[in-house]
């Protein structure tokens, strides 16, 4: 936007500061810091990031932002729990006072001398609406999930989450997995998010209109506040630097040696774990497919193990260089690589969007939870550029799924469908495109506060 040469507007915005507060999880930190960069570089605002001690972002990668750390009070056990809902609820209690103090200090001119225009927080930080209200500061919410998911849980009755899609064909299937997992706790958590998001001044989505128009139309009836679809965030700048783990660059040198569109890239994001049996079925499925694979095995992916100990005996010798295993990959570069033919993903929203942006068809695999289940259904049944592995992980199913997507005509069709969407995405970021315009509206909206 500054390309227009409107320096006086830019100077004006430089005097307006935005305070951003990411939830301290990789899949939430990435979109928030990408958004911060967009609002700084493209819209010209000054940026302060408030963050917890736990999983604090690497401030040296963002020398132009101001960082404020708050104590989250989490014990070691609390910080390492696998129960993400309990973790998020606890943070919403423990951070109230330190966050309020930090924000009040900023508003009182403590340190950064620009005028604070608004607060932007992750939707999961529902407690921040009351803090913003008490300080008379507008709060805008960043929703790091798909609109399709939010629509599924927020628009229909809260007790029963139904997958409710209105497309050229209609179906309503209960998303069983969401219904059965500790429903009371999840219900309370989602109700809080929905209530405090409704009370906010607007929602920013890491999505683009051409992808989620129908879900947005439906959601707007329940949420008559401004919606800004300015994504995909990561396409504004080269590969993001907000990774909490070191990204193994041998992923790229290994991919360089593989034939075009031949490799299955496998990663289940930053949170999910598998048991030992599942891990071995994945390993055998990959080996038996006889196709090259790049597999991200995060330390701790299999609970109670260090790294690769649960691999079948002699596995690495057996695959003889046909596979490459890393702890963490530069995922956006990997998906952009010409050798990658498909992405086996847990369907976290960042991963799903990153795959769409590079036109890579997907295998949507277990294990999944929360929004990932809804995203997986959309990828396989609505947008139809992926296969959904719905049954329990089994080597034969895995092998067949990989071959169907990479080798068979069915996979070719998926690639064609996803490429159409990728082309639309490329246009949405250019001048006059839907995300470009939405960013302009967001900028003007913030300037009106
Ligand atoms: C979580 C939730 O699980 C997800 O469903 C929600 O939508 C956002 O927060 P996570 O499970 O980590 O995130 O998955 P995902 O949303 O896909 O985010 C993972 C991020 O880590 C992506 O941006 C991806 O590029 C990055 N990543 C992943 C790497 O940089 N290297 C890797 O090896 C794997």
TrEMBL record:
Keywords of the record: Glycosyltransferase, Transferase
Name of the protein in its database record: UDP-glycosyltransferase
Keyword Lyase assigned: no
MF-aspect GO terms: quercetin 3-O-glucosyltransferase activity; quercetin 7-O-glucosyltransferase activity
UniProt superkingdom: Eukaryota
Source species: Dipteronia dyeriana
Keyword Transferase: yes
BP GO terms, sorted: salicylic acid mediated signaling pathway
UniProt similarity note: Belongs to the UDP-glycosyltransferase family.
């Amino acid at each position: 936007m500054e390309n227009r040469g409107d320096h006086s507007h830019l100077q004006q915005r430089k005097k307006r500061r935005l305070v951003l507060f990411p939830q301290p999880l990789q899949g939430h930190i990435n979109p928030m810091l990408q958004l911060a960069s967009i609002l700084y570089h493209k819209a010209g605002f000054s940026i302060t990031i408030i963050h917890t001690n736990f999983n604090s972002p690497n401030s040296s990668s963002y020398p132009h932002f101001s960082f404020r750390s708050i104590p989250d009070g989490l014990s070691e056990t609390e910080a390492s729990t696998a129960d993400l809902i309990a973790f998020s609820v606890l943070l919403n209690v423990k951070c109230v006072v330190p966050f309020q103090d930090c924000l009040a200090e900023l508003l009182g001119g403590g340190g950064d001398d620009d005028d604070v225009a608004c607060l932007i927080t992750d939707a999961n930080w529902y407690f921040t609406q009351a803090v913003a209200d008490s300080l008379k500061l507008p709060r805008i919410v960043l929703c790091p999930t798909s609109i399709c998911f939010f629509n599924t849980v927020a628009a229909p009755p809260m007790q029963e989450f139904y997958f409710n899609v209105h497309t050229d064909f209609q179906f309503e299937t209960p998303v069983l997995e969401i219904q059965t997992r500790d429903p009371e706790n999840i219900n309370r958590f989602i109700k809080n998010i929905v209530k405090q998001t409704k009370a906010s001044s607007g929602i920013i989505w890491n999505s683009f209109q051409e992808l989620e128009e129908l879900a947005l139309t439906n959601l707007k009836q329940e949420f008559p506040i401004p919606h800004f679809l300015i994504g995909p965030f990561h396409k504004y700048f080269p590969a993001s630097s907000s990774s909490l783990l070191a990204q193994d660059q041998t992923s790229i040198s290994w991919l360089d040696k593989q034939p075009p569109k031949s490799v299955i890239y496998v990663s289940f994001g930053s949170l999910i774990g598998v048991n030992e049996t599942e891990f071995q079925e994945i390993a055998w499925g990959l080996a038996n497919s006889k196709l090259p694979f790049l597999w991200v095995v995060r330390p701790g992916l299999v609970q109670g193990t260090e790294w690769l100990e649960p691999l079948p005996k002699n596995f690495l010798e057996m695959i003889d260089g046909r596979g490459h295993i890393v702890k963490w990959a530069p995922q956006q570069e990997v998906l952009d690589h010409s050798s990658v033919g498909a992405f086996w993903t847990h369907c976290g929203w960042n991963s799903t969007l990153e795959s769409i942006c590079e036109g890579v068809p997907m295998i949507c695999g277990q294990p999944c939870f929360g929004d990932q289940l809804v995203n997986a259904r959309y990828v396989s049944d609505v947008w139809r550029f992926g296969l959904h592995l719905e049954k329990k992980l089994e080597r034969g199913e895995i092998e067949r799924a990989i071959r169907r997507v990479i080798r068979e005509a069915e996979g070719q069709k998926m690639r064609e469908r996803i490429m159409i969407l990728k082309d639309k995405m490329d246009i949405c970021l250019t001048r006059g495109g839907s995300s470009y315009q939405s960013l302009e509206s967001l900028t003007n909206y913030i300037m009106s506060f």
